[in-house]
């Protein structure tokens, strides 16, 4: 092609395009292969209930355990998978893995441990497939629907609120919960929010980070907690890394926390060990300190 057109510039151009096309093909090919090999799995980050001091659930986070390249972090493969249209297949693999482990913990009598799975805006948009997969997973694994929760980011929920609301209702009818992830980072319309069939709001970790130093962040966290409770929703704070953050959130009656203080996202067997042994003594909750409830 470059030869026909004769110019050096067009030659370079097509060469570069060829390189790029090649790179994309390789990565696409690798991801397809990884899907066939079931290399996309769930790791589990525990969620601590601040009233009972117990682990009550987990968030499933996608991990690529590549036989060729070891662990590839989600920040690297999720954007690429989105670009190639493979994200849905990957998330389905993660959802099924997450449900499998959660059903096992339920069978083992380790408590009513729920699992929250991240759902992309696109999956929520074309919800038919998602609904079918969830139904199949629940029946074949005998997982109680109330133990499953689907996380949708605030921005994808508000991107198409009519549809989000319809799909949330579909899941609510089944007993499956929905929650809004990264709450506070998007542009929520409160009139829309109140019409959603939700179980939970998750406070984005950017507000939790400086909650004990920045009065504004503290005010935002308290306001989100109060609003969630007024709407009859549970609230979970993400990215809790210190006991001071936990104490503040607890003083404001936040329901649950998730973060490195409790545990990093754990491989399933380590999550199971944690559920079996219970949380370490250093995390046992004492009387509430700080502001009164
Ligand atoms: P997210 O849903 O907001 O997940 C929380 C992220 O915060 C996770 O990153 C988790 O490891 C990290 N994190 C948890 N506790 C702490 C903490 O105390 N401090 C700090 N600094 N970070 C903490 P991860 O696993 O890298 O996932 C990143 C994002 O990728 C997730 O954000 C989620 O949006 C997306 N993601 C992960 N798995 C899936 C999936 O299966 N499907 C979809 N659609 N998205 C996924
Ligand atoms: Mg999430
Ligand atoms: Mg989140
Ligand atoms: Mg987040």
UniProtKB/TrEMBL annotation:
Chain segments annotated as coiled-coil in the UniProt record: none
Signal peptide coordinates: none
Top-level division of the source organism's lineage: Bacteria
Domain EAL: 24-279
Protein name, per record: Diguanylate cyclase (GGDEF)-like protein/PAS domain S-box-containing protein
Stretch of the intact protein here: 578 to 870 of 878
